[in-house]
# Entry
Amino acid sequence: MSSAEHSDFEIRDYLRTDLFPHFMCPGCGHGIALRALLWALHELDISMDKLALVSGIGCSGRTAAYVDTNTMHVTHGRPLAFATGLKLARPDLEVVVITGDGDCLAIGGNHLIHACRRNLDLTCVMLNNEVYGMTGGQVSPTTSNDRFTTTTPLGNHEPVFDACELAAAAGASLVGREITLQTPSLKDLFRAALSHRGFSFVEVISDCTEIFGRKNDLGNSTEMILKQKSAIRPESYGNVVDQPFRPGNWSTGILARNERPEYGANYREHIVAKLAVAVKGRR
Amino acid sequence: MSASAQTQMRNLQGNHACALAAVAAGCRFYAGYPITPSSEIAERMAGELPQVGGVFIQMEDEIASIGAVLGASIGGVKAMTATSGPGFSLKQENLGYAMGAEIPCVVIDVMRGGPSTGMPTRPSQGDVMQARWGSHGDTVVIALVPDSVAEIYSQTIRAFNLSEQLRVPVVVLIDEIIGHLVETVAVPAPESLTLIDRKWADSPVDTFKPYAINGDDVPPMPRPGAGYRTHTTGLTHGEDGFPTQDPVLVAPMMDRILGKLERHRDLVDCFEAIDCEDAEILVVAYGITARAARRAVRRAREQGLRAGLFRPVTLWPFPEQALRSAAASAKTVLVPEMNAGQLCWEVERVCAGTPIARLNRVDGEVITPQQIEQQIMDLAAHE
# Structure
């Protein structure tokens, strides 16, 4: 797989620019994530006619509408359920889910673990900004300890979900994480996820500057993103913790990969085989 | 006439008849979650669908089941799920999505006693109002309520046709007792069935508006992969399908969506009126209760009483005009139902001015013909 970091990629070719101005806040990391996703789709030459973007509710859920493709903005927490039906009914479509930390891990948590287990050929992109941004900044399952949100006025004391560990444990056959600052690496991770046959889960460490950052005095978007960079343990460095330079909050890159049967093809092949036996048995 | 083109007489359980009818109607995707007393529908679909190239999946919960059904339907495949009261409650939010985004789907609710876990193996008609008002906001839904295994078969096929034709979710409310009843059904030859598929968009891609308001009420659906690249959302949207809260755009869209059933009464309405012309005591009953009522009305007639039966088969939208005509000569309207009194309020609204009597059971037992007959006698004696 060649990985061009400079290409003829023109993001506007993939966007519904007539919907602009978009509604993301200044400094939001979701746009960078979307750019990396579209860049990966461009490099893989995936037809926008054959792509289906399914998203849930929240800031993450609103990003899909800006892409000029088949977009489905469904109910809160349920994009994986809709995507499962769509992919099983239409295996010819490339189905990608865009979800957020609340959408995917809280209200949609049950669908995530079962989508991982099933291993249907879906790509699930979880934009993790540590907060419920759309509803005004409430605590989410990924909000770091001691962070202030509108529903943790004294700081968050709930344990934090590691979404990638969860996905890998539940059986996702490709799991990865990246920050938005490493856009080419994020694009490559998306390429790997989109090319993977089976359920792939990509966590993007995004940033919510306006609501979460401001409430926690984390500085502007650039400062937040640079802090993320100092907090990662990149795959290229063996995901090692390098104290004190890299305190090591997040491993990045491809964190789990295993080849196992893709559910949709497996279902159809299994049925063909069983029905053939049944017909033979009746003779 | 070849053997395959003939009607087949088959002994079928109601739930199995529902599954077979769905397959005959062209359903090729089923997602469900086990729940008594509807599980036989899922079990039968799991066996039938693979044989016709369809997909069956048991999802992780009720919400995922209707979600997957809507995903499949957006993909262009006729899809169904089946459940019972508690699961029907869980599906309501996504049913609302189907109403707003106009995604065809069929939901079977085999009714059991409630509230909550209630009486999972006992019959009830407690979901008739949930079927109409279960999702939030202003809703648009068709609900059908068959009274026999044969009618489960025919109404399940009709449910798919209406759903495809009008782009609206269709709920089939089955009494537990009919779902588990075995009766002889004249299963029509597949070639003899009238099957309706949704209208697919075929106009030029550049100017296509997925939710156009053009007087036809039901816009054609864009098939993913066909180049239309449209947006489907649960948010209020304009003709282009993109979210808007502009009153100028929202009002006509909501008028179209919420009014389309009223404007297609010719397709939607379905009822049975027995001896209503001169009926002074009109019984309004549905599902299994209507079978008891039919016998009670006949017995009352035999005893010289002017009794009649009005049986809605399409429960929602409620057949207002038909009931008003049927009740023209009624001095009293009796509404027996296996709940604490639900449809009686709708009947009271439609038959305003006519006294309404109720007969209710919430003990997990059916209402007997004798009970209805007795109440008809009592009402006649008091006139």
Observations:
- The longest helix of chain A spans residues 263-282.
- The domain at 11-282 of chain A is CATH 3.40.50.970 (Rossmann fold).
- Chain A has ten helices and eleven strands.
- Chain A touches chain B through 37 residues (CB under 8 Å).
